Amino acid sequence: MLLTGIRLDQYRNLAAAELRPSNQITLLHGLNGQGKTNLLEAIYLLGTGRSFRNVKTPDLIRQGMDTAVVTGQVLTGGVASEIKVQLAGKQRRVTVDGKPVQRAAELHGKLAAVVFSPDDTAMVKQGPETRRRYLDRALYTGKATFLRDYHEYYRTLKQRNALLRCGTSDGLDVWSEQLVTSGTRLMEHRRQYVAQLLPLVQQHYQRLAGSRETVELAYAPDSDHRFQEQLEQCRVTDLRRGTTGRGPHRDDLAFMIDGHDLKTFGSQGQQRSFVLALKLAELDHLQQTFGEPPLMLLDDIASELDRERIHNLLDFLRQRQVQVVITTTTTVGIDPGMLQQSSLYRVDAGTLTYEGSVPR
Questions:
Q1: What is the pTM of this model?
Q2: What is the mean pLDDT of the chain?
Q3: Where are the domains of the chain?
Q4: Which CA distances in Å does 189 have to 75, 114, 146?
């Protein structure tokens, strides 16, 4: 998968910006708050129709404007196509080569991307919701059928909670049964994905950390095969509180090192290495799924990794022929040899300026 070009119109603070990324490394540098991450977000938007940040569609439109458009040229399986995402109010319209995308599956696999950002590193210390959001976002990128089951579960959950807030149990059994059906499918998606990711995470962590530490990634479901029974046991409590207390909406991911909680027993360096290993495992999984490497989007890389780790990471991605787009406030930590093989852009107050590259 390759992104050969992208144009943004009225997207966040980028009134009009155009990027022609290198097939290898593209570096976006500039001070904080200038729009670098917005560019990465727009690339991700092309492949999924969604932001990798927890925001609503109106937030993606430049302040004072009614609409925004992101247009990208991509090469997938040797076939060129154009993806366009049009944003208006709360609405999103996605087209591929001018034809409307009616279902998520039609966009699936056109431009898969993996993001590594400071927010991802922070999820080790944050609550289950952050890790759940990561898990579901990663799952959706690699599995088109997941989104249908995800939405079905949360629509049913919303209806059940609305009934609970009314303080009546009339019709509750129907919604509980539907919640168990869709929730069981959702849990199975998550369980299978984590099981597939685990050996890849362990492999990458050993390479990154160069140590004998053993890491584990485990799915920690709130419910199990007794989900129906658990809902019944919580029925009175749910009615009193007006919300559903058990289910996949309370799932978590467990990050472990040498049998202990990574949050408590892992150093900052170990935590960063773990999350990076998780992201590289996600990249491997997507490559296995689609038969070609996805894009790697590295946000504010200099704040998360030291010079040696940056060099080793970029060298690894280059050997794997992964297209990489990097944002950074400084190019100091980037190896000069790699800079010579990069397309370099400065981002300043929403303006993108091309500063050169070596022929691809």
A1: 0.92
A2: 92
A3: 1-112+294-360, 126-291
A4: 29, 19, 7
